[in-house]
Design a protein that fits this description.
It is a single chain. The chain is of the alpha/beta class and about 260 residues long. The protein has a single domain, classed as NAD(P)-binding Rossmann-like Domain (Rossmann fold). It is about 40% helix and about 15% strand. The chain has a seven-stranded parallel β-sheet with strand order 3-2-1-4-5-6-7, with helices on both faces. Helix 4 links the parallel strand 4 and strand 5.
């Protein structure tokens, strides 16, 4: 149990899609440190097993479910199995996502559908399926994962950017729809984070230097940087906070430059 009752998640059950690595696992560790039980929904069982072992070493109950978030039947099955195993669901972190980078004129319908299905439709389906379980528990917390591209354009990620912008608006709409049922919905917008997903991006010549030149914190982010914000949004500390979005980016979007211009 955490020393501050506002952030104590004892007895709470959290579902985290894509929670076996990167930002999802960083969030999972934060919630586990606050004593939540963790259900990881992801495709790679071997990777999930390693994540579960790490979470169990923190003294919490954790279990992995093999799920393709594009499949609504998979999501429905995982919802039922999670409720059976843990007794209910209190927290959803809809973290699973995909980005296929190319110039807008090169996108095919198949690639467009893939990105929309994972980044938007699956997020909505997760919330839609878990909503009745939260209602049974008297409320819940839904945390969506957007991106800096939710608010800024990126030439080689037009469809990804569109879906992540839609995630922010989805969060606001779900907050409006379900607020009276004590379900809070908020969105986290990650900046430049060191994860497996960004490994190719980080190899682009000059990008590391560009990011650092724009980031007041002076470093790239890490999955561990999401433990605190995830715990806040999942806990009673945020009971009157809903429909918001917050950048976790070391200040990247807050400034034009990190040096002082002459007066």
């Amino acid at each position: 149990m955490t020393s501050n009752p506002l952030f104590d998640l004892t007895g709470k059950v959290a579902v985290i899609t894509g929670g076996n690595g990167g930002i999802g696992l960083g969030c999972a560790k934060g919630l586990a440190a606050a004593s939540a039980s963790i259900a990881i929904w992801a495709r790679d069982l071997e990777k999930s097993a390693a994540a579960i072992a790490e979470l169990e070493s923190m003294g919490v109950a954790a279990k992995a479910y093999q799920v393709d978030v594009k499949s609504k039947s998979d999501l429905a099955r995982a919802t039922a199995e999670t409720v059976k195993d843990f007794g209910g669901i209190d927290i959803l972190i809809a973290n699973a996502g995909v980005n296929i980078r190319m110039r807008p004129e090169k996108f095919t319908d198949e690639i467009i559908d893939e990105i929309i299905d994972v980044n938007l439709k699956a997020v909505f389906h997760c919330a839609q399926l878990i909503y009745p379980e939260m209602k049974k528990r008297g409320g819940g917390k839904i945390i969506l994962i957007g991106s800096l591209t939710s608010v800024q354009g990126l030439g080689v990620a037009s469809i990804y950017s569109a879906t992540k912008g839609a995630v922010v608006q989805l969060g606001k709409s779900l907050a409006a729809a379900w607020g009276a049922e004590n379900i809070q919905v908020n969105t986290i917008l990650p900046g430049w984070i060191v994860t497996e997903m960004t490994s190719v991006t980080r190899a682009v010549p000059g990008l590391q230097e560009h990011v650092l030149s724009r980031t007041p914190a002076g470093r790239w982010g890490s999955p561990a940087d999401f433990a605190g914000i995830a715990t806040y949004f999942a806990s009673s500390a945020s009971d009157y906070v809903t429909g918001t979005d917050i950048q976790i980016d070391g200040g990247f979007t807050s400034t034009l430059a990190i040096f002082d211009l002459p007066e």
